[in-house]
Predict the 3D structure of the following.
Amino acid sequence: MPFPSYYRLLGVPELETDPSAIFHAARHVKRKIRAYQIGAYRPQALDLLAEVAQAVAVLTNPEKKRTYDNDRVKQWKATVEELYRTHGEGAPRDAGVLEAWLTACAARGVPVTRILPAIVRSLGRRIDEWPPCEEHRLAMPINLWIYRDAVILGQCLHLGSLEKQAETVKQVQKLLGMTEGLARLVAEEVSRNLHLFAAMRLVTAAKKDPEGLLVRLGRRIRRFGGHLSRRGKVPAAVAQLLGKHKQDLVRAFDRMTEPVVDLSPRQKIAVGMRRWERRAKRVKDFSSHWIAQRPQILVGVGLLIGLAVLIVSVLVATGAWAPWEPPSAPALPPAAPSLSAEPPPTESPKQEPTTPVSPPETDRWTKSLESLKELRGKYPVEPAPHPPAEERTAQPKKPQNKPDPETSAPSSDSPRTKFFGVPAKPAKPSPE
C-alpha cells in the first residue's frame, strides 16, 4: 500500500491553501498520535510524529508546497491516463463508461472534481466520439464540466433558499443528461472541499459580474457545438442559481451576439503570446509523456549520438577533417603597373600570343624595356664630331713619356705645372 500524501496524513483536502487549516489539522493529528507514544507502539508513533512535522514544514512553505503540488498533479494525470486505458479506451462511449472511469480515479485518491477541467481538456481530441446529450448536443465531458460549475455555484452562493438551490441543481442534472453516479460523485466531492471551491475564480466572477459569467457559459456551449437559444433551459437554470431574472438573461444573450471588441496591438500581442505559451506547454507535456512511455527511443537516440561522435573522432584522428585549422589566406591581387607615364603604343595589328603567359612581375619589366627601346628609336643620340681623316694622318699622336722624378730634376725654364688651376712654385735646389 503506498504511503498517503501529506494532505491525507493531516486530514485536509488535497491542494489545501489555508496555512491555519494545516496547522490546526496537524495539532489535531499530533494529539491523537501522542496517546500511543508510551507503550508498545512507541517507535511507530515517533515515526508518525516526524512525518507530520515534515508534512507541516513542506505545506506551509510556499516554494516547497508549489513543488509538491506540481508533483502530485503529475501523479494524478498519470493515474487518470492509466485508468482511461483500462476503462475507457476501446469501450463504447457512453455515460456508464465515463462513470466507471471517474469512480476508479476517485477510489485511487484522485480529486476528480478539482482537476476536472484538465481531464476535459485532455479529452479534447476525443470530444466528438462522446454521444450528444439532449437538445444542446454537447458531449458528455463538457456537460460534466458545466454540471460541476452549477454544483459549485449552488453550494457557494447562498442566493435564495437551500431547497430552491437543490431543486435547480437537480434540474441542471436532468437537462445535461447526467447519471446518478456521476452527479453523486461530483456533489460529494464538492461538499467535502467546499471551502476550497469557495475561493475559486468561478465563484469570484459570479459575485462580481454574474451577467459576464452567463455570457462565458453561453459562448462555451456554442464553442463546443451546442445549440443555444433565448429559451435555453440550461442558461436559465444557471441564472436562477446566480439570482438573476429574465431581463438579465436577455441582456446576456444580447452580449453573446455582439462582435468581439477590437483589441489594441499591444493586447493582441499579449493574447498571442499567452496562446503560444499554452500551446508550447501542451506540446512539451505531450512530448515528455510520449517519450516517457517509450524509453527505447532514448536508447536509439543515444546510440545515434555515440555513432556520430565515433565517426567524427576517426575523421579527426586520420587527418581527413581538421575543424580547428584556420582558413587559408585569400590570394593577393596582381600588383598594379608602375605609375611612370608610358607613351601610347603605336597602332599595330594585334597578334595572338604564342609564348606562355609570364608572371605579372616579369610582364611589368618586359613592358618597361620595350618602352625604353621605343623612346631610344624616336630620339636617337647624335655622335660627337670627328676631325677629317687628313688631319688624323698628318698629326699622329705621340705617346708622352713621363720623366722619372728621381733621375731628372725640373728645369727652371720649363712651364710651371698647375694643380687645380693654381701655379706651382719652383722647387728650391738643395744645398750640397
